[in-house]
Amino acid sequence: MNMQKMMKQAQKMQAKMAKMQEELEEKTLEATAGGGAVKVVVNGKQEVVDLQIDPEVVDPDDVEMLEDLVLAAVNQGMREVQEMVNDEMGKVTGGMNLPGMP
Q: Which residues is 81 bridged to in the sheet?
């Protein structure tokens, strides 16, 4: 394979990856904790875009439990969105692990 052909293929892959990243930024995933008492929505840029807390779990005498539920939901959302990004990018890269890519 000549160098020019390899460069063209690399540029195509780079363009596909950029397009995929743009598409992923629009996607969202929902994660919950406490049986749905805390719900977060995370986008493909790994930003929490929505947070809902069931008023029944808001106990002023047990703020720590609510904090734990929020952390659990956010962390689950982040794990799931990272997995989604990795899966989608793997489709573009053919499973190659490229430095600097999620």
A: none
For the chain, what are the domain ranges? Answer: 27-88
Burial class (CB in 10 A: 0-12, 13-18, 19+), 41: middle
Q: pTM for the complete prediction?
A: 0.74
Q: At what angle do helices 3-26 and 63-93 cross, to 10 degrees?
A: 150
What is the tens place of the pLDDT at every residue in 6-46?
888 888 888 888 888 888 888 999 999 999 999 999 998 89
Q: Which CATH superfamily is domain 27-88 in?
A: Nucleoid-associated protein YbaB-like domain (3.30.1310.10)
